Amino acid sequence: MINSAQDDRMVWWREARFGMFIHWGLYAIPAGLWKGRCVPGLGEWIMHKARIPVKEYERLAERFNPVKFNAREWARIAKEAGMKYMVVTAKHHDGFCMFDTKYTDYNIVRATPFKRDPLKELAEACRKEGIKFGFYYSQTLDWHHPDGMGNDWDYNLSKQNFTKYLREYVKPQLEELLTNYGPIALIWFDITTPTPELARELRDFVRRLSPDTIISGRIGGSLRISGTPSRGLGDYITMGDNQIPEAKIEDDWEVPMTLNDTWGFKSYDHNWKSPGKVIQMLVDIVSKGGNLLLNVGPTAEGEIPKPSVDILLEVGKWLKANGESIYGAGAAPFNTPSDAPYRCTYKPRKLYIHILGWPWDGKLRIFCVKNRIKPEKIFFLTDPSYGELACRWDGDDLVIQVPEKPLDPIDTVVVLEESA
Length: 420
Ligand code: FHN
What we know:
Largest sheet: 8 strands, parallel
Bound molecules: ligand FHN
Distance between the termini: 31 Å
Strand content: 15-25%
Mean pLDDT: 96
Number of helices: 10
Strand order of the largest sheet: 7-6-5-4-1-10-9-8
Oligomer: single chain
Structural class: alpha/beta
């Protein structure tokens, strides 16, 4: 059920469409290598994958000194990339707190030579750049805390008291995060809370403290319905990692996406998505009514890896010219076949046709839209001076005449204005 309080909370999020996810923590030091060996899998899972004892992993903190960290630069990169919100790991599954907390000494201010609270600096920098700011918080898995879930190599899981952990550790820490960092736009829970009752308790707690904060779908709290992830007690559906749905979803949804094959930094993962691929994925996602939360994994020195920055800046260039077709846009009121060489995003009386594969014969065929759209004027978004594009109906399809070559081979956007 969508109520109006939820609609009010979601206004900026629906407009935003594109956000920056940041996975940053102690795992950036080993960066995928432990004792000289490559540890397969996600960089931030190294403690789990290599079954590193708590006492040994903890010592990474002594070496964590990200002197190149510059919050304003990170916020500027997000802004230049055209991202409208940022979600950063306050605590990931390894349990290390990247913020100043009085509930454990295992935090960046007390346990590292860095001694600063980078999340305070980031919150401030984002505010200055007009970027909404939120926290990722691992509410269920915590391999460091004796009562958190998931560490069966140090702790006897049958003796754990998760409810105590949630009430005496998770909730107080969330209170710190929701009260000491200015307005928090979003809390990104992960993995799902073990029981619906505890999910509800957590959800109500966040709501009471900060009614405008959006809560991610992975808080859990209700069953999945026929394979589609549900938003449970959260405000929107969080899709599986890197999973774009086949067709549009009539609800708010977001997909968390990696830029390479890891969230936390891995020194040897160079499998970067190209800027063109990212742009086309963003378009595909918005055409199905969703948001893209795209990840960067900064290094232990505190830098967003250069390949990520380069990709993001290219995406930002495209968005500067074509943003009108993305921000505040959503799914069209008709379906597009998944193998069509175009995607459509939509605002009332304006259809944006994103041409992802240029028609070799100059005839752009929009399938099955008779009686669904009423074309009045058709033109290129980035070059209205080219003039109006001719069109004709062919059965149920609309055929638009386009020139021989694309204006932009990654995605040329055609605007179709509708008559009233
Ligand atoms: O286990 C985590 C993973 O490390 C990462 O944080 C992703 C981001 O969506 N969430 C979990 C897996 O789904």
